[in-house]
Design brief:
Blueprint lengths: L1 E5 L7 E2 L2 E2 L1 H18 L3 E5 L10 H17 L4 E4 L6 H5 L2 H4 L4 E4 L9 E3 L2 E5 L5 H8 L7 H13 L7 E7 L1 E2 L18 E2 L9 E5 L12 E3 L16 E6 L7 E4 L6 E6 L1 H4 L2 H4 L7 E6 L8 H8 L3 E6 L14 H6 L2 H13 L5 H15 L5
Parallel strand pairs: 1-4, 4-5, 5-6, 8-9, 9-12, 10-11, 12-13, 16-17, 17-18
Antiparallel strand pairs: 1-14, 2-3, 7-8, 14-15
Family: Belongs to the SbcD family.
GO molecular function, one term: endonuclease activity
GO biological process, one term: DNA replication
Length: 378
């Protein structure tokens, strides 16, 4: 059996106010093509299909389009679970007839105990859970922590093991010893506390979601696929892609890299270098860029000048521990007073809302500022 393992699509995610829909569509198109080229028997999506529990109508439409393309048009079986960012209720809508097209999506712990058998394997789909759901399922108030919940779940799952099959677990959690990035939810709260690897020893392969880097954990049988798109500067150096897993040779699973439309990069240097054409013409200025500025001196309209060259700046920090009043881009109070009011307002709005002003909002703000500067009244 050959599986494509992916996770953490986070449809609807924004990167410091920038819409990532085009990047996510690009990643999906590559995943679909890889699945066809590799002639996979199924696609594993190990949680966090959405970025939030109440996704927008646009996000719901986009995910539905992707899943229909894979499952109905391409006729590839899908094995998916809900993650901690998903709404289990929303994902489970329609699940009664999904089975007719080999689309398996599990959103409740109780579903994990019924294996899906295909070829030489049994797949157990265990969605993200909070310990109280497991307490209720087993009627056992002694289950208080995630490792206790996992122990109880896996003990029952193993009673369903067929001796002549490979046993694959699909789940969404933090495995002990994994490395995290700042784009992932705090991992010591509720159901996201660490799960000891020894609990997973009886599985032939554990396909995980939640951590966004494929190298978050090094284990012969337990693997994160990582996210298909970069969601923060802390992921700038990560390779994004999917895993191809053959059940008859699991330890030699292959990573297939995805190519982004816009990459995420971290630049470090002084202002004079960053605005020098000899420097910036050597890089893709359309990427999402974080800047670590080494200057200590005041620079008028710093962000405005940099954005003319790097339009997709997602973070600007001062290096060498330098800090002052405006943490957003490191400008001093004197420099703030000299800045263009529209520039200040746009930056403040983006800092607070993590979104950029729309064209209508910009026009309204410009009209208002002109009215004030001309002596008019609001």
């Amino acid at each position: 059996m050959r599986l494509l393992h992916t996770a953490d699509w986070h449809i609807g995610r924004r990167l410091h106010g920038f819409d990532l829909e085009l990047e996510q569509r690009n990643a999906f198109a590559q995943i679909e093509q890889i699945a066809k080229d590799e002639q996979v028997d199924g696609i594993v999506i190990a949680g966090d299909l959405y970025d939030r529990t109440l996704p927008s109508e646009k996000s719901v439409g986009l995910l539905n389009q992707m899943l229909k393309q894979l499952n109905l048009t391409d006729q590839i079986p899908i094995y998916a679970i809900s993650g901690n960012h998903d709404s289990a209720t929303r994902l489970s809508i329609g699940s009664e007839w999904f089975l007719d097209t080999n689309f398996y999506i599990h959103t409740r712990v109780a579903q994990a105990f019924t294996p899906i058998e295909f070829g030489d394997s049994q797949l157990f789909l265990l969605p993200y859970f909070e310990p109280f759901e497991v307490r209720q399922y087993f009627g056992d108030d002694s289950i208080q922590h995630v490792d206790e919940a996992f122990a109880a779940i896996l003990k029952q799952i193993k009673t369903r093991f067929a001796p002549d099959k490979k046993h694959i677990l699909i789940s969404h959690f933090f495995a002990a010893g994994s490395q995290t990035t700042d784009s992932e939810t705090k991992l010591t709260v509720g159901g996201l506390a660490a799960v000891p690897l020894k609990l997973l020893a009886d599985f032939d392969y554990v396909a995980l979601g939640h951590l966004h880097g494929k190298d978050a954990l090094r284990d012969p049988k337990v693997q994160y696929s990582g996210s298909p798109v970069k969601f923060s500067l802390s992921e700038a150096n990560q390779e994004k892609g999917v895993l191809i897993v053959d059940t008859d040779d699991i330890e030699h699973r292959r990573f297939v890299k995805l190519s982004p439309l816009k990459d995420v990069k971290q630049l470090r240097g002084d202002f004079e270098t960053l605005v020098n054409p000899n420097y910036y013409q050597t890089i893709n200025r359309g990427d999402y860029i974080g800047i670590n500025l080494t200057n200590r001196n005041q620079i008028p309209n710093l962000m405005s000048q940099l954005r003319k060259i790097y339009p997709n700046i997602i973070e600007l920090k001062r290096a060498n521990g330098y800090d002052d009043i405006l943490h957003y881009d490191g400008e001093s109070a004197t420099n703030i007073r000299q800045s263009d009011p529209m520039d200040l307002m746009q930056r403040f709005y983006e800092q607070v809302t993590k979104q950029r002003l729309t064209a209508d909002q910009l026009k309204w703000a410009q009209d208002t500022l002109h009215s004030v500067s001309d002596g008019g009244k609001l």
